[in-house]
Structures are given as structure tokens and as C-alpha cells.
Amino acid sequence: MERKKITISDLMAKKEKGSKITMLTAYDYPTAQMVDKAG
């Protein structure tokens, strides 16, 4: 099952609702690929 990509509009809506979000920063391309595949 593939997840829907989150857009800026989605994040802004979550902020307005007061929802908490989890984020991760990937400083290089290989790490970004692993994070993206992990979901």
C-alpha cells in the first residue's frame, strides 16, 4: 500500500487543527531515499 504524499497545504491544515506531526531531516540523498521508502 502506497502512502499519499503530504503537501504544504496538508501541513498548514494540520497546524490550524493543532495536530502534532513527526518530521525527519535527511542531509544526503541516500538517507532521503531510505526515509522515503520507510514511509
- From the N-terminal CA to the C-terminal CA, the straight-line distance is 10 Å
Query: What's the number of domains?
Result: 1
Q: Provide the helix percentage.
A: 40-55%
Largest sheet: none
CA-based shape: elongated
Short synopsis of the structure:
Helix content is 51%, strand content 0%. The protein has helices spanning 8-17, 29-38.
Strand and helix map with partners:
Blueprint lengths: L7 H10 L11 H10 L1
Task: Please provide a written account of the structure.
With 39 residues, this protein is mostly helical. The protein has one domain (8-38). The protein is 51% helix and 0% strand. It is built from 2 helices and no strands. The N and C termini lie close together (10 Å).
Task: Note the main attributes of this structure.
39 residues, mainly alpha, 2 helices
